[in-house]
């Protein structure tokens, strides 16, 4: 029988793809998809969020979340998964490290023992309130830990660091995204209302600075809220807020003690004290910033870089979030954030009036 030359048939082009795939080895079929599609999607979404924030003066992290959720359908293409996961992990860790250039150990010392003790009280009770709120609303302990830690320390940056420790196998990305949305909205509302509350209650500059710096989640919004009251209050709020940021590393270390490692509960307790590499790098960068004077232009570039990296990480996480799980959470998913925010305000206000 004469062999058929398939190349002479125009229809053979329709079969070529299937014929080619049948000749591809399983190893080639299982090759990792390229990084570029996911990276490009995050870059475009992050740029859109930055443009919206610049023109409409809305929190950039919250806009990154919303844009990422709106583009959630992109993650339906498997080719984007590797790039999205890379951005969600690497940019998160790199952003936390670069954030270390904004804080020093000196800022904690300048705060003084009494305000520092009051700040620790605010942060501790805030984290407990997040956990209690999660229990009362039927959420997991990890959801309460995430909400309480994000509210107590520095908003989205702390949420990203803590979630990196918790992991998606313990807490869904949907709950994480909902927590970020709640924290960002609460921080934006606090920046507008807390200075007015401090003025209505007749607080002095130091009291107002402590209240705003100890209770508003986001760094930029806490500083902006302080200066909205007065220059002295803004300076004091900056010190208090940056002291909270400086406590990110030790608090993450303590959280590691309460999280059962993936290896199982038989792991020795001292192994849980092992910090993630990006937290160790954060401490190292903060130490360098404490011992040497970083030029202001370099610090400004580092701040912009940190915000950009965290924005990309948040956007990638939102794109990979299952919207059906997010919608199923309903109002219960917001309870831990609300409980932590209300407690943070109440305790910070009491400390500002009776301690500061």
Overview of the molecule:
By secondary structure, this protein is mainly α. It has one domain. Helix content is 74%, strand content 0%. It has 18 helices and no strands. The protein has helices spanning 12-23, 26-29, 36-56, 60-70, 81-99, 105-111, 113-136, 141-152, 156-166, 173-200, 205-215, 219-229, 231-246, 248-258, 277-291, 296-319, 323-329, 335-354. Helix 5 (81-99) runs parallel beside helix 15 (277-291) and helix 10 (173-200) packs parallel to helix 12. The protein is globular and about 55 Å long.
Q: Estimate the helix proportion, in percent.
A: over 70%
Largest sheet: none
Roughly how many Å is the radius of gyration? 24 Å
Count the DSSP helices.
18
The percent range for strand residues is under 5%
Mean pLDDT: 81
Tally of DSSP β-strands: 0
Termini separation comes to: 98 Å
Order of helices and strands: HHHHHHHHHHHHHHHHHH
Helix/strand-derived category reads mainly alpha
- Contiguous runs where pLDDT drops below 50 for at least 5 residues: 9-24
Gross morphology is: globular
Q: Tell me the number of structural domains.
A: 1
